[in-house]
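Q: Here's a chain of 139 amino acids. Please give me its 3D structure as tokens.
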Amino acid sequence: MTIEINDDTVALWYMQVTERSDWLAHLGKTDDPGVFKFEYRFRYYEGDQTLQFEKSEDKKNWYEGTLRRSREDCIGIVRNMREHLCEVDGGISEEDCYELIREPDENPMQFMHRLRAMPFSQSEEITREEAKARGIDGS
């Protein structure tokens, strides 16, 4: 499973949970107005933390569901989840929790540029053909 940044993307959250794990969440629109797709994962690092993408041996536990609320309510639900995770795991500071909300007039490429500038971001730019060859193209 992978998170795809596209026209449906509403927001993205990230936080370092422990020295050897992190949490990533994505909220996206669906074809059904008022229904949003919420997906998140916990990642547990194996070996070094180099930029390996699909070659990584890290363990990732993925979860997904739908939320039937307004855009603002859905963002609030995920924020509450993130805040709760911060408290449960021994007081993770706000500086280690990142939130990126897509502006209504922002296209996916502009959002991706903001995402790539975040301190936690590890990304690579590949062509659609490369993505298809790797089996990670979402179209």
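Q: Can you summarize the key feature?
A: Residues 71-88 form the longest helix (18 residues).
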